């Protein structure tokens, strides 16, 4: 069993019957974000919250939430990765990376992922001409979402510091932001 959202490419997108606010995360959102993260990764929410606090203080990271009536229903982030001289030759390139897109189970297939991704790409376009993300090849839902945002595959032979990637199980993708 995977920790990814169920992949149902033929499932109809459900119409939103309420307003969804997509905005930068604030301190008061971090408990809800940490809880969303542990629904996929497991582990203690408190440890995830500590990392989120540090992310909010880092100008090279951007955490965004989707809310309905002040309730966080989705979380996503962008980080800046810088190559180090000691990194292996197949380490992912320096740049901004989309990470951690998680939407509450009750709100999936409402376009929340697209809203969060669009906001992260908008933010990154103010800082860079390209953006990356990497995904497990088994995560069809996330791959379809990013394909609609003009991401193209770069390689399957790469490492990323701190990410538990198994060779041949993930793809590194890139999108051009220069025209946005």
UniProtKB/TrEMBL annotation:
GO molecular function: acyltransferase activity, transferring groups other than amino-acyl groups
Entries under SUPFAM superfamilies matching the protein: Acyl-CoA N-acyltransferases (Nat)
Keyword Ribosomal protein attached: yes
Stored CDD domains: NAT_SF
Protein's recorded name: Ribosomal protein S18 acetylase RimI-like enzyme
Cellular component terms per the entry's GO annotation: ribosome
Source domain of life: Bacteria
